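Narrative of activities, Objective 1.

The group set out to show that a structural description can be obtained from nothing but a protein's sequence at a throughput compatible with the screening campaign. Below is one input-output pair from the validation batch, recorded exactly as produced.
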Amino acid sequence: MTGLVLAAGAGRRLRPYTDELPKALIPVDGDTTILDIALHNLAQAGLPEVVVVVGYRADAVSARVPDLEKQHGVRLTLVHNDRAEEWNNAYSLWLARDHFARGALLVNGDTVHPVSVEKTLLASRGPGILLAVDTGKQLADEEMKARFSPDGLLTRITKRMDPAEAHGEYIGLTLIEPAAATGLADCLEAVWRRDPNLYYEDGFQEYADRGGAIRHADIGDIPWVEVDDHADLARARTVACRY
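Output recorded for this entry:
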């Protein structure tokens, strides 16, 4: 199993920080970036082989590879998405299909969170795909909401859901088992070919609709932030210093 980080996005709502850097390289605790947190967590969880999907300002990540490998004790492989500024992240994840074929722990490159999330997912391994879900957060319109059947299988994942109907928020970490990888890759391709502006979570929905098993693990009461805008970044900087 490998670690997998999606770090191709431009993060336009975070300008001027992202004028020259991808979102994942924004510092959130001194010089510590969001990508540093992801790599540290994956290494601490026993996954030192890490694939990073890059796109916007990919050269900034490439230039830091030797230092990142030395600092975090990881071995990095970069996958380049040359459409990162045009298309959404369903395509980014699909580009890494050969790497998640052997199983992967996927981390969004804009999620600031403690290593307990990775450890929770790895401790809850089972067939199919496993999502990290915050079941305690008060939900509104922006969150990626998820609903599960009585037997624990995903029925719906979308931002466009009545918060009252959701079990919780998907926080951007997923464990993909090898047996699920080919089916997921097929679903991601179907999604981005239908509309390249769709999210990889739409690929999860396609996988569930085709009968694939997607379960969830509750992350518990922990501090975490998805960094989309300046208000999120301010919150992330109060959270990251606690780890």
